[in-house]
Each structure stands twice: as C-alpha cells, then as structure tokens.
Design brief:
The chain has helices spanning 21-30, 45-50, 52-69, 85-109, 166-170, 186-197, 217-229, 283-286, 322-336, 365-370, 386-390, 419-431, 436-441, 451-461; strands at 8-15, 35-39, 113-116, 118-123, 126-130, 135-145, 149-151, 163-164, 178-182, 201-205, 233-235, 238-245, 250-256, 259-265, 267-270, 274-276, 309-311, 350-352, 357-362, 375-381, 397-403, 409-416. With 469 residues, it is of the alpha/beta class. It has 3 domains: 8-150 and 275-336, FAD/NAD(P)-binding domain, CATH 3.50.50.60; 163-272, FAD/NAD(P)-binding domain, CATH 3.50.50.60; 356-461, Enolase-like, domain 1, CATH 3.30.390. The chain starts with 7 loop residues before the first strand and ends in an 8-residue tail after the last helix.
Length: 469
C-alpha cells in the first residue's frame, strides 16, 4: 500500500457500469447496502456507448432512409432523397448522451459512489483502483464483477483505420461505398443490414453453413431473402484469410468452395465474437475458478468460487445479452442482501434487429425434441394479418411450440416487423406457465401485430379463423 493510501470501506463494490453493473449497484443500494461502483471507461458500458443503443439508432436511420426511397407501393414517392450521415451520427450520439447521463443520475440518486479507474484485486476483500496519477485501496464485504467483453481480433485482421470492429463501424465518418463483414452473427448481420439500408454495397463472409446460428433456419431464411433484396451478398462456409490495406481501402482474401478469392472494399468489419474482460484484474492470483475461455464459474446466485465475490454478464457462461446481465445483476445484489433469489433462464428472450426482426424465447423444436417432449409447432403468417399488410410488412410468422398433452407453451419464435416488442408477451406466458389456450382466449386489440400471436395459438388448438386449417 502506498503512503497515504488509507483504505476506503464499502459494503458492496461493483466493477463495471454496463447494463449488468449499474443495475446490480442500484438494486444493492435499494436493499440498504453502501455501494461503490468502479468504471475505467464510460458509464453505461459497451451497451449504452458502443453497442446496443448506438447500433439501434443507426439501424433506425437506415430504415428511415430505405423507406423514404422505396415506399412507392404505398403512394409515397420521394425524389432526390439524401442522407446527411454527419447529422445521423449527431442523432446517435445524442441518444447515447441522454441515456448515459440518465444512468449516472440514477446511480447518484441511489447514493451509489462512482469511482473512475481500473480495478485490480489485492485479495478477496480489497481492490486497488488505479488511475494515471494515483491508486486507492477499497475494502469491501462483497464484490460483483461486471466487466463485460470486448471484440475478438483475428491475427490476420489487426484492427486499424480500415479494419474495424463494431465500435469503429458505429463511428465511421461516412457511409462506406463497399463494406465487407466477417461474421454473420447478431452484430455483423445487424450492422451489415443498417449500412445496406444506408446505401452500402455489403458482403457478409460467414464460416458456418448459415448466418445467425442461434435462430431456426425457417426464420433466417426470411432474413436472407430480405438481405438479397437489398443487394447484400452472403457467402457461407467462407474462411477469411487476410487483408491488404491501403490509404483508401482494403482487399480481403477468403476461401470458399475450395477457391481463393478477393474482394475490394472501403472497410472490413470484423465481428467474429467477443471475449470476456477477465484478464489483468488479478483474478488468477485470487484463485477464482475460471474456464479455459476465461469465463468465471458461478452458482445459481451468481456467486463465484470465493463466497463473497459474484460475477455477472459477459464474464460468465451463457448468451452475451444486456438483459441477461441486468437480470443477473439483480439476482447477485439480492443474494448479497440475504434474499433467496436464483437465476432461471427459462424465459430469456433473444432478439436480432435485422430486417425483418428476429426474436425467440424458450425452446426451439429441436430442443423440445432433444428434451423428450411430445409437442405441437403452430405457425401463423404476417401476410394474413391486417396490420402487417397495412404496414406493407407481410414477411414473417409467429411460431408457438407447445406441449401436446396440455398445450403448455414451451417456446416461441417470431420473424417479422416488431418481433422485438412482440416477444415480451410470449416470454411472460412461458414464465407464468400459460398454455396456448390461455393465449387464444386473451382478447387482443384489432388491428395489431399482436393478433398474430393469438392466431398462432388458435392454430395450435386446431381452430384457426383467418387461415384454412
């Protein structure tokens, strides 16, 4: 300990202020704990600053621009539509600033002490917070690690001016004429779609046999159809080999179908996954149990192998989702307070903001089969719904997977306009142990997209009204 470094004591110390950390800190404060949160970069973490929120802002810009150009069928003909990308970035930055400022106010309003700096564990009851000019020791009764993740860098694609990660893609100063995306998962497909809507010529290279591996093929087929319509080329079973960078662009080499090929572009966006931020924190010296991938092992209360240290979000196993991190943050904070909270991922939704959107919750057909359920899979198309047609958004469907014996809802899958909002009703239904009959008997307002959910439930019961059985 440096001279003059008198330890500051706190009840619960949270490392990281992303959607896991700040929620954990607030919930801990609500239970009466004295809470300190440490953040080395920016309040709100990746999600609010360079992830979920700014990407959705640019996706919205892309939708507006694309709709302005292609609404002739609805009688809206716009001439000489232009995109002021500088203003679009200002809009995105304004949204981010409003939300991050809001989070800081919430932390302060709940009397959470905010400390800037990098945290390093000294032992299982203290950390050092290091800044450029100083170091301060904090002693805690309990700690929550919520340090998130960062983009994986491919050795042959080192990040640079023209080889960018998702953060770089969100902060470009111009819309690329040509963009190559390596990785057809959530991030690559979302950002590829956004830039395609804004006028980029986009190519997606994916090593697996299909893009968006977490979703059913029936769903991704509709997204791929939409990508093709936008002129996006999707090349699967493709292995990215290397890149040559010049002042004005890149040449990407890849292998597909046994052939080596190259593509020239303005930028190459690398989105091949994220790695947990668990290094350079002193966790190894602490003796915390971790996996080979650097994930921290936790129990049902998010408690690590050291009983007073907890971990949540991208640093533990499971889907790397902001709402999962927030949920785990509440569980950890409540566990520290002595409550009996435990994690239950039965109804955790997954959403992808492609065009159209994808959303899933609960079991897929394949998972239901693997778990030994006798089930019914019932679908209702967007094209048979009045609201979807009036929005000129007929592509997609709602599929409900239910137990054959009693109609218990096991899973739900949506591809179509507004899927990200529609999935909440079905998550609630699974969480509450509802059946397809419960959903079918719930009166849904007309005309709405939500009616498609009710109609899918009627299909499951064998009594559909608006499609022929």
């Amino acid at each position: 300990m440096v001279v003059g470094d008198f330890p500051i004591e706190t009840d619960t110390l949270v490392i990281g202020s992303g959607p896991g950390g700040y929620v954990a800190a607030i919930r801990a404060a609500q239970t009466g704990q004295k809470v300190t949160i440490v953040e080395k970069e920016y309040i709100g973490g990746v999600c609010l600053n360079v992830g979920c929120i700014p990407s959705k802002a640019l996706i919205s810009v892309g939708h507006r621009f694309e709709e302005a150009q292609h609404s002739d069928a609805m009688g809206v003909v716009a001439k000489e539509v232009s995109l002021n990308f500088e203003k679009a970035q200002e809009f995105k930055n304004g949204v981010v600033k409003k939300l991050t400022g809001g989070v800081e106010s919430l932390l302060k309003g709940n009397k959470v002490e905010i400390v800037r700096g990098e945290a390093y564990f000294v032992d299982d009851n203290s950390i050092r917070v290091i800044t450029e000019n100083a170091a301060q020791t904090y002693k805690f009764k309990n700690a929550i690690i919520a340090t998130g993740s960062r983009p994986v860098e491919i050795p042959t694609f080192k990040f640079s001016k023209r080889v960018i990660n998702s953060t770089g893609a969100l902060n470009l100063q111009e819309v690329p004429g040509k963009l190559v995306v390596i990785g057809g998962g959530y991030i690559g497909t979302e950002l590829g779609t956004a830039y395609a809507n804004m006028g980029s010529d986009v190519t997606i290279l994916e090593g697996a046999p299909d893009i968006l591996a977490g979703f059913e093929k029936q769903m991704t087929a509709i997204v791929k159809k939409g990508l093709k319509k936008k002129g996006v080329e999707v090349i699967t079973k493709a292995s990215a080999k290397g890149v040559e960078e010049s002042e004005n662009g890149v040449t990407v080499s890849y292998e597909a179908n046994g052939e080596e090929k190259t593509i020239e572009a303005d930028y190459v966006l690398v989105t091949v996954g994220r790695r947990p931020n668990t290094d350079e924190m002193g966790l190894e010296e602490l003796g915390l149990k971790m996996s080979e991938r650097g994930l921290i092992e936790v129990d049902k209360q998010c408690r690590t192998s050291i009983s007073n240290i907890y971990a949540i979000g991208d640093v533990v196993a499971g889907l790397q989702l902001a709402h999962k991190a927030s949920y785990e943050g509440k569980v950890a904070a409540e566990a520290i307070a002595g409550e009996k909270s435990v994690v239950d991922y039965l109804a955790i939704p997954a959403v992808c903001f492609t065009d159209p959107e994808l959303a899933s919750v609960g079991l897929t057909e394949e998972q239901a089969k693997t778990e030994g359920f006798e089930f019914t899979a019932a679908k209702f198309p967007f094209g048979a719904n009045g609201r979807a047609l009036s929005l000129n958004a007929p592509d997609g469907f709602v599929k409900l997977v239910s137990r054959k014996s009693d109609g218990l809802l096991l899973g739900a899958h949506i591809v179509g306009a507004g899927a990200s909002d529609m999935i909440a009703e079905l998550g609630l239904a699974i969480e509450a142990g509802m059946t397809v009959e419960d959903i079918a008997m719930t009166i849904h307002a007309h005309p709405t997209l939500a009616e498609i959910t009710m109609e899918a439930a009627e299909v499951a019961l064998g009594t559909p009204i608006h499609i022929i059985k």
